[in-house]
Fold this sequence. Notes:
This protein has strands at 6-13, 17-21, 29-33, 37-40, 51-53, 57-61, 71-76, 81-88. It is mostly beta strands.
Amino acid sequence: xxxxxxxxxxxxxxxxxxxxxxxxxxxxxxxxxxxxxxxxxxxxxxxxxxxxxxxxxxxxxxxxxxxxxxxxxxxxxxxxxxxxxxxxx
Length: 89
């Protein structure tokens, strides 16, 4: 059974690392970042094994949701403040 769609918004500041779960029962994840933001599958690798989402980027992770029980880790690349929005559906 699928969960009801939900959206979460997180504010980030310099040096802060955010962990976000894919969420069990969701098949699609949509991400939006307001500033250049690093994304990694491991907190320990956020400084050297990551990809960067550019400011005002949307990315859709379509089925299957392979991150259901895993985390994505976010950290601002160069800005001092920014926002990460996650929609799970």
